[in-house]
Design goal:
Strand content: under 5%
Radius of gyration: 19 Å
Helix content: over 70%
Oligomer: single chain
Number of strands: 0
Order of helices and strands: HHHHHHHH
Shape: elongated
Distance between the termini: 21 Å
Number of domains: 1
Largest sheet: none
Amino acid sequence: MGAARIILLGVGAAVFYGILHDQVTARICVEYFTIGHPDVFGTDDPTLLGLGWGVLATWWVGLLLGAALASAARWGKRRKRTASDLLRPVAVLLLISGGCALLAGLAGYVAASCGWVVLTEPLASLVPEGRHIPFLVDLWAHSASYAAAFFGGAALVMRTWRGRLREAANGAWKTGGF
């Protein structure tokens, strides 16, 4: 049951982050979702797109993170970590991912505004010209979120595993220390 809770934590955290992230980015550039993604939801409403894509695009990331984290936290004889133990580190990962998205979005805005990056075909013809810069802002923000989640998630899994190894080596497992 402990592993299932950790997996649910991963999925829930990813979906929560995805919905918040997409609520913002759908308002920056709805075309990122209506033109840059398949028409899954049949709407151009930013709230509905943010909800729909926030779930659809992130549940699987959370499942992968949750499964890897559950393995690192529960496998073996060393003292096991619980979902409660991992709540704060997962929250920090979400904050870092959000910060990376914000910085990347700002960098994308500057780069696109200066003409250093441009939207290429076929999207350049499909997205209205006045929406190219916001589209690129969303693209950079989303790319940064996925990269931060991947590398940050991998670091969190390794940190969890190593923490359990270090604890066992120090004999803390005998006293129940963390």
